[in-house]
Amino acid sequence: MSAYAGVPGVVETREILDEVTLVVDPARLVEACTTLRDEHRFNVLSDIAAADYLGWGEQEVVGYIGTASGRDINDPGSRGLARIPDPKPKRFSVSYHLVRVAEDPARLRVQVWLDDGESVASVIDVWPAADWFEREAWDMFGIRFDGHANLVRILMPEDWEGYPLRKDYPLGGEPVRFSDED
Amino acid sequence: MSVLPSTRVYEGTRIPRPVPTILEVDPERHRLEDILRVNFGPNHPSTHGVLRLVVDLDGETVAGIRAVIGYLHTGFEKNMEHKSWWKSVTYAPRIDYVSFHANELLYVLAIEKLLGLEAPRRAVWARMALAELNRIHSHLVWLGTSALELGAISLFWYCFDDRDQILDLFEMAGGTRMHTRYVQVGGIAEDLPPGFAAEARRFCQTMPKSVDEYEAILDRNAIWLERTVGVGLLSADDALALGQSGPMLRSTGVDWDLRRNMPYLAYDEVEFDVPVYGGGDVYDRYRVHMDEMRESVRIVSQCLDRLDETEGEPWIADDRKVVLPPRHELHTSMESLIHHFKIVTEGFTVPEGEVYVAIESPRGEAGCYLVSDGGARPWRVKFRAPSFAALQATATIVQELLIADLIAAGGSLDPVMGDADR
């Protein structure tokens, strides 16, 4: 993909299912985004999607999911995964979905990889639309965005503990009020 | 894409700094000791759900504002990660309960992209017809409630009367009025029933007349014009910077519609116009919604013609690893019975990968980011909610408005709180 050759900090470029992804060094994210906005005219940030890859390729169960443990992919008799998925470089990915609103429309995914506790610079100065999307990623995954002036919880209550969309946060982790366990 | 010259919009940018969604009181324009902080919502009939606005008032003027969301957060994305692909489709329409069909369609399109599965022609036309009916439904709800908030109570009943006819059509097709789960991976759950086309055609004939009537009520209504023209201004540059889409963006003069600019389904095979207005105010958002209803009727009519042509053709892909076999085969074919059992109990698997699919929902760009590890459950589901993006513009459009106009401006964002909070 020579089209994005001049973008600073690009570690990897891939094109799968007609979607171009630029994996960018987190330290140079703002630089890369500014170039993409100014030189490649990606004028709209449509979404920021974080994902947690804890246990990627290890925990997947195929089978009747209603049971407590499900079924282990390594168990004989389980259909299992057709193949073990490719390992990911770090625990979290943050994907910035850009769109070029112009005569020649295009989409692009910019992706950075982070470990637990690592932070990435905020792109709020490049696209103000990043404000709430970054707050949501902080709220759900505990990913810190440096330079965001108001990085507080957005969907969960202010005093909530834990980051609900992390893979080690259980479903139903919320205590049930007025139950016998109180 | 062209941008219309703007007549009413401000110069420069109005996006607050350093936080684009918080408008702080400007001490040079307001005396801080005069400021009264009012908590507006989350339970207020004119907030379109559970939106909370913390408003700093100087007299009746809005001097500062902060939108607080999350009161309807139900953890859809987390829940969907714990259900099989097959079952998680049920959650998608409930996220944005006003444009239920659009969300269901979006999620299924994203799964189909990962699977590399293509829906048959008949299913595509049926999906499109219902998507446009859903758009009219959503716009009617918007028009009815927004006009109600500005005092036009009769319009609310007229709109909900027409809305009911659309829900009748959904009931005919899918069995339930909302959240039909009619869209299946690979196509649609059942063929459209006999009589659907005739009923839908009848609706297509009456609906444009209804739109004419609504305009007759509002277009030259002095109160409506006073309350909407020049209120809630947003410039094209600010709209793009804030990630706006759909009617919000088209009311600022930006000629952008995913159905035409990045076509999906078969939108490149139908004729329709994209309404664009350059005023950037509540009135032009109203104009965009009205014109879009007419255009949607046009698209529905064309889809119905194509549905007539494809009568008798399959409505769901013939892929036994993903699609439930026809019911009658379960009594005669052992393979079909096994496939049925496998899909219902274990679910189907989806190849490893990540996709971002976006469609033009009634509210703008609705996106779905999916990650699969090759298993029977989604690894990550993320919805790009157009209401979430639209609400980010609150602090920009309400500057120096009166508190009464705040209602008009907030309503014109067309937020559905289920969509914003997920």
Summarize the structure.
The complex is a heterodimer of chains A (182) and B (422). Chain A is 12% helix and 25% strand. By secondary structure, chain A is α/β, with parallel strands linked by helices.
Task: Give a verbal description of the structure.
- The complex is a heterodimer of chains A (182) and B (422).
- By secondary structure, chain A is an alpha/beta fold.
- Chain A has two helices and seven strands; from the N terminus they run ββαββββαβ.
- In chain A, strands 1-2-5-4-3 form a five-stranded mixed β-sheet.
- The longest helix of chain A is centred in the C-terminal third of the chain and has 12 residues, at 130-141.
- Chain B is α+β, with helices and mostly antiparallel strands.
- Chain B is built from 17 helices and nine strands.
- In chain B, strand 5 (183-184) and strand 6 (187-188) form a beta hairpin.
- The longest helix of chain B has 29 residues, at 121-149.
- The mean pLDDT of chain B is 89.
- At the A-B interface, strand 3, strand 4 and helix 2 of A face helix 1, strand 7, strand 8, strand 9 and helix 14 of B.
